[in-house]
Amino acid sequence: MRFEILRLDDVDGTAVDSTVVDAASVNRMVQQAAAIGQRIYIRPAGATAS
Q: How many CB atoms lie within 10 A of CB 17?
């Protein structure tokens, strides 16, 4: 399964950019975001996401 991870703006919470990763990479991405205090949103990637 693949997931889309959206990096969120600290001020208003809008999506700044997104990355599609496999399930094995989600934990690493969450740890990286937590280490620097970055806000992220994770959702299953749709068929059109790349």
A: 8
pLDDT at 47: 62
Q: Are 17 and 7 in contact (CB under 8 A)?
A: yes
* Contact (CB, 8 A) for 6 and 15: yes
Provide the CB-side half-sphere exposure for 32 (13 A, CA).
Answer: 8
- Three-state secondary structure along 18-37? EEEEEHHHHHHHHHHHHHHC
- pTM of this structure: 0.80
Cα–Cα nearest to 36, from 10, 5, 3: 10
